[in-house]
Here is the input.
Amino acid sequence: MFTCDAASIDLTPLPSFSSPTASLLPTTPAKTPEKSLLGIPEWLTQINEDISRALERGINIRQLVAARACAIDSLLIALFKWFELDKTDLALFATGGYGRGELSLYSDIDILLLAPNEIGPDASSKIDNLVALLWDIGLEPALSVRSVSDGVEAALDHTIASALLEARLLIGNEALQDVPIQIVNKQWSPRAFFEVKIAEAKARYLQHNATEYNLEPNIKTAPGGLRDIHIIGWVTKRYFRVSKLYDLVQQNFLTEKEFDELSFAEGYLWQIRHHLHELTGRNENKLLFDYQRDIAQLMGYEAQPDDQPNAAVERFMRDYYRCAMQISTLSEMLTNHYYETIIEPQLPDDERPKKQPINARFNQVGEQIAMAHHRVFAQHPESILEMFLLMGQYGIKNVRTHTLRALKIAARGIDQIYRDNPVHKALFLSNLKEQNYLFHRLRTMNRYGVLGNYIPAFAQVTGLMQYDLFHRYTVDAHTLFLIRILHRFTDPMFSEEFPLVSAIFQRIERKEILVLAAMFHDIAKGRGGNHSLLGETESIEFCLAHGMSVADANLVGWLTRYHLLMSMTAQKKDISDPEVVTLFADLVGNVTHLNHLYVLTVADMNATNPQLWNSWRATLMKQLYSQTRRILRADIDAPTNRQDMISATRAQALAMLDNVNNQHMNRDEVLRLWDDLGDEYFLREIAEDILWHTEAILNHPPIGLASNADSPPMVVLREHRELALDAVQVFVYTQDQINLFAVTMAVFDQMNLDVLDARIITATRDFALDSYVLLDRSGTLLVDEDSQQELKQRLIDAFKNPTVPKLTHKRIPRQLKHFEVATTINFEFNEASDQHIMSLETLDQPGLLARVGQIFLQQQIEVHAARITTLGERAEDMFYISDRNDEPLSADKLETLKTALITSLSLRSDNVES
Here is the structure.
């Protein structure tokens, strides 16, 4: 039972209440005057201060959450008496977390006033006065007032039933002390209550993406949060008739070690929660970027001399994620253990899982695997890895809990001697070759210590996160997710989403090559140095030690080293330039390397950030793959220079034109127009967009004479779902002018439109053909014709007015405020286009391109093409630029431009969006 020990923490005592006074009994809706509150608000503030100072002195957080519950107990008991509720037949209960005796600084105060019968007017009046005072002193209680019959009906709601299970009598009618638990027992069978709580947990998990590794986790409700500990108590305490988690140890349901692990993890989360409440002054449970650095410092995570800027907060979050994984693992195991030992034996025979022997060491029990006797792992250490292989071979996804418990203990014995055993090496490699349920098997290995002990380097990256918005998962979660996506390439359900890569992966015979590359590609992160090079060395050593051929080991090592090559080339270089593709092909070397790298890269991008992969990136990757494959296969029909690529694109567009209803487009007019559009256009546009542009231009008055200088600007819009849902593609066709890019960016900025992609091309007759993919922050541009017309008119008006519209002042989004991205600018001269390629890396921020456009205008820079890439909080954009006479820029001009851009982009707004 919960007991108070507030004295040991030296909390400020509750002010004494001499006798009831009229001033404490509100008679009007007006708030009780401050003078009549007897110093209670100040006392509440002081005990919070006392608790914070006690934590600083090293007092255990478990004592502190209990001490605050004790303090609130004393207050509520005193007020219960003050309002003479002790003279009624009411009972006052603490429920929920408060009932458990667990209160952080601003936790909800859940209380229940329970009456044996209907509550009379006198008692009701006293309750109203109590509630009014509680609100006036700032306690904001979650108060329920019920008769026993009301409680019976309310308990049909499982959330109310859960709160009643924690009910603790504070004062009042002692005859009602056991009524809350009796109500729950009456309304809920053990099985029904278990099933509804598990369903609730699954729904809760889905609300948090079913992962412990959210960037801004809710430490109460997310997977691995405090709720995962609570559910253990909810489903077990009523059956075992205990009030504390430790009592389950004495019931032999929980082991001492499991209790210690849960207790430590719970205490860690309580510390975080305490600091969250103290920093925010409210019941805040979401560990936002706003608080992560401060809490890391408060909990003793300090930067070391050789640390990277974010190392301290990354260590803090790594420990949080490890703690969360430990809690969710134990919660899942213990709730399943309850089902298997308490619920399952009471099921009808036809519902109980049937046992079938697999071999002398393992049985299949229903859809789970189980060891045949409790000494399997001790007597046969190889069976640790054998079990996972059998799961793949027999299509078994889950493990019985008594086996998981034994596995967790056995995994601690995996040492260098175990790793050096040839039988164990062969079994581990066989596990990677067996593709069935590979992700689920590796996930269980990771959660129960097998994977981290067998590959110690993997244990180092477990829970390791990068403090940015781009990498959505910890290294271990990302790695396993990557392997899961590899398996999707064999699933017909995903063949439409990944047509080419699926076909390639299915033709690769040695799929364990890619699995090993996936496991090692990020394994050296967090150590400093080049993680790709370090990973290459370790992966080759591992493969050779496991009996793989030198050729296979080198392929795994090569993939580990160059796992970023293809994505960086496709996204950051101009793959319409044959020279770029040829250099990439030289690095890749052969088609086998290319096939493996393509598959790994697509899976890696999908596993890094769900928002990263889209049709646009898929097209870039496919284009680079196809062009490179032709070069490596020495395809004599492959385009090998700019003119060949231009001819190939025109031929493809013409073939599409011939295959559609094109009666409204004259073929000769189309060809004449295309001759006017210039080479760059056909290098940078795809056939589908070329047809769209062509139709729009030929239908734009005067038809066929768009080169007429008096022709008004043309702006057309269409839906574009390749880069993002609800994206809009805008095509602008107008006379070229020196401020065109700056004007366009400023208009987009004014209308709160984010640029996802930009293609800026000048036709041979000095007409601009600019295409943009936009995302509307309000989400209305696609469906609102007025907004579409406003955008068109604003652009047309701006093109006619040589003055660039003034930029609007935008607040920086809350999440971006917490990241520092140094602005870096590099220039590379491209001989083929006779232009400089400017690469810009900086913090993504509102109005970024509008500010860049203004600098280009001020510096008299002509923009010929642009590629816009946003990776989390980082913008990585590329511009093809020259002077206004289409001449290359001098070294001095480049340096002046660089200085101007860095100066402009360093001016960040301190105003932050919530």
